[in-house]
Every structure is written in C-alpha cells, then in structure tokens.
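Each field is listed here:
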Amino acid sequence: MFDVLYLTFSAVAWVMVGYKTRAWLRDRGNVDLGLTALMTSGVPVVFLFSAPSVYRAFDRLTGVANLAMVFLYSAVVLFASGATVLLLRWTSRGEEAARARGAARARFAVTAVAVAWAAAIVCFAVGRPDSVEHPRDFSTAYADAPGVVAFLVLYLAIFGVSLAGLGALCPRYAAQLGRSWLSKGLRTLAAGCWLGLLYCLCKLVGFVLSWGGHEAYWLSNGVAPMSASVAALLVLVGFSLPAAGPRVAAWRRLRRLQPLWQDVTAHAPEVTLAERRWTGRWPLADLEWRANRQMAEIRDIQRGIRRHVEAATLDIAREKASAAALDERGLAAVVEAAALRRGLANQVTGHVPAPHADSVVITVSSDPAEEHEHLARVADVYHDPLVDSVLSELREICAARRP
C-alpha cells in the first residue's frame, strides 16, 4: 500500500515539477522561477525514496544500508535551501544595496546549510549501529544512537527553520496582492509549510518520548510521514497555482462560452476566420488566447447587431429580471442575452426597428476577468425560460402594433 501511495504522489509531483520547469525554459531570465523549479524537484525525489520497495532496492544497489534515507533527506534539504534563498530574494527587493545584502545573506545561508548537512551526513556515517533496513521506522529504530539522532536533529533544524520563515512570509505577501491566483498560491504554500512544521514537531516529540522510555511509533512513523506527504503536495500546489490557476479558469470560461459562441458565430462566420492558430494542435493549448478570442468575436457580433434590437427589449428584460428577484449580475446577464437573441433574429429577417437600442453590451467592470465572467453568465442564461418570456412578450407587442 505504501509503495502505491508514495509512487503515486511522486508521479503527481513530477508532473508539477515538469510544468514549472517548462515555464522556466520559456523564461530563463526569471531567476525565481528557475529556483522554484529546482527546489520543487526535491519533492518527488522524497516521495520516490519513501516507497519501501524503492528504498530497499536502492540500498541493495549501493550496498549501503539506509543510504536511501540520506538521499531522501538531502532532497528535503534541497527544497529547504531553495526556500531560504527564495525567501531572502523576496525580502530584499528594491534598491541595489538591499539586493546586495539579500544576495550576501543567501550565500551565507546556503553555506551554513551545506556545512550543517555535511556534518549531518558524517554523523549518519559513523552513527549506524547495524545494517538493517529501516525504510519506515528509521528515526525510532536509531533513537538510542547518538550519531543518527544528531543527523536527524540537524535535518529537522534545517527543514523547520526554512518552513517557519516561508510560512510566515507568504501570508504577508498574499495580503498585499488581493484576490489573485498568486495570492491563493502563497496561502496554499503557507498551509503546506505549517503542516510541515507539524511533521517536525511529531518527530521531535517522538525522540523525547523514546528517550523517556515511552515509544510512540504511531506518532513518529504514522502521523509524521503522512503530514509531511500532505504538506509536500500543498507546497507543490502552492507553487503551481499562479500559473495553473488562470489556465483552469480559462478552460472553464471556454467551456461555458462555447455554446454561445457557436450559436452567434453561425450568423457571422467571417469573424472567426482571423488567426485560428490553435487548430490542429493539442486541445488544451492556448486556453487563455482561445477564451479571449471567443469573447472578442461575440462582442464584435453584438456591436454589429445593435441597430436590429428594439430599445424596448432591454426595458422588458429588466422588468422581468427584477420581478424574478435576480441580483444585479443576473439581471445584466438576462438583459444582454435577450438583446443578443432579439438582434440576431431581426438581423436574419432584415428588420431594423426604430428606435433601436443605444447599446446591447453591458459593461460590468473594467477588470477583464469580471467581463469574461459576465459574458459566461450571459451564455448560461442564453436559452433560459426567462429570456424566452422576454422575447415572447416583445413579439406580442410588435404583432399588436402592426396595422
């Protein structure tokens, strides 16, 4: 079971690391992005060596018992070191002098971590009392071995300090960013860091209980590794959200806009001919471009049919939406959907009413994301019975006015 669990986590983590690495390869001048790709590569390595079968196979291959634990913890230290450098870079933005101080602190931190971890590896090398494999109970099996305990304490100190610093800084930056995918990513990253500190606490409490003669295997070998696993996934998600979030939102918007786009562009296919660069490519490519393009094409058609929409269409739609107790956003969507359907229908017959509507595009915000969401709501209610009732009443009024 543990093999399947950890290998699955490792596969998921490798996908996320690959995503970050691909982004860095497209923007190699972005040092922070490159550092993020490097440090997060330690997470799937941790999951890989956490799988007992991989752990034992690696030790058999090298001929050194429990050497996999050194590689596992070294991957954690790689993440911790990268997080520390990233932390120092974030806090030293601004003037040249501040950046220079941040760079000096980063070099000192990396040197200190390297020296401490080298000392930890020496402690591991001289402190193992036997050659028995301990993929799941390493810390409790060697609780009475001073060298291994020193190795573990140094590891927890490096890891814990890095997590505490990153966990404290991320919410501060998130608070300055408002509601954004970067803010969500930073908060998720902070949650992963604090959960990682729970892992460190469980390990330290397990040591103390073992030294006191009260073994707590469930804490050191159960709660601790599982909390670390969830924390690692949260950290990876936190790093991936700023890039993946907008793409997911674009995919959802694209899916919601698709029926409306197909319906309205059937009346004016010429507007869809410009630069369809995604044709024949991976269907998930250029999601944001495709969603933006669909919105622009719908808007072009809306403006082109304005003279075919009776001014009364908007008034009737507002009355019925208000009677249905819709909120402001729902009302705007119903009004625009009714105007769009009426305009397309009149355009087909060539009817140009007088007076026609001054505008059939309702601007709800200067924020493009809000405008996209508004048009998606228009798509949601485009064939709603409430819009049908608006058009039915309008047809009755028009019919009654004919001589």
